[in-house]
Queue: 2 jobs
Job 1
Amino acid sequence: MNKKLSKFIQTVIKKSPYYSKWAKKEELKRFSPASLKKEFKNKDNLCMTTLKKGEMVGVVNGYYDAGMFWVDWLVVDPDCRRKGIGRELMERLEKKLKQKDVHKIWCDSRTSNLESKSLLVNLGCNRITTIKNHWYKQDFILWQKLI
């Protein structure tokens, strides 16, 4: 599973127009099969996938922290976007988190990622703040949703 997941996420990262070369280089390391294996040993981490015709088309992953859940990555195959996959993943995640008594989901998006921003607003997320010159010297928006 780690190899298939790693390959999927790395392929999407490489195609992403939203991340600098530096960001891509570092994030590709984070999603190597070995890194994922280590990450998934931590019981606070969670990863959910969506398959279509046996192929991975979407992933959401993150971790529990003090009654909240940080969505680290929501990744949808570029050829499958705008088909409800991101929404479906986030709704499944929210349902699972409610069962675990999590009270808040929070995440970030690049300020330039219009698709992500639109999805998060449509899911009922609220913008917390914009952080300029942040991770990898890029601008991000922090989001939250009370559940």
Job 2
Amino acid sequence: MKKVVVVDYGMGNIDSVVRAAKECDVNVIVTDNPFDFEGAGNIILPGVGAFGEGMRNIRKRGIDNTLKEYVLERRIPFLGICLGMQLLAETSFEEGEHEGLGWIKGEVRRLIPDNPHTRIPHMGWNEVNIIRKSRLFEGIPSGEDFYFVHGYHLVCADKDAALATTPYCGGFVSAVSLDNIFGVQFHPEKSQYFGIQLLNNFLAL
């Protein structure tokens, strides 16, 4: 059975991610211990909360160095979910300016309402429009709804990294990919059938 590491850096409730991953028939380990990453077939970085606190926790626990080894050097398939996707950016402007992992060129900015009725944070179901082919979305039609909870988004400087967009606040990038690195702004673990399909696709890489 494939070993999947869900990174624990003290941000948000990861129980739903673990339950969803277990539905995909894999062995899930929740950890921040670098020794537990050995033999991992996939790595998931979930998270809910503020960017700055997230990066502080990651650096304090030395997770940034562990991720660099396994994701950038060993090229283990990686998926960042919600805050986990935003942490891939170079910089965030959430409550100040903070340096991210820097794996995806771009910065995290607050969503700007495009009309008086637009609510921030963006919460609930919204469509995800696939803009280029990827195994992550295999078997998932473009325009299907996924579940979102966020007030900030990743603005990609590298347009080739954008994988999907969502029409809210004038439109934002809701999924990215670069080689073995993937990120989704939505919560696949809360997105029912197609969310599990996406997780299955990722875990099959």
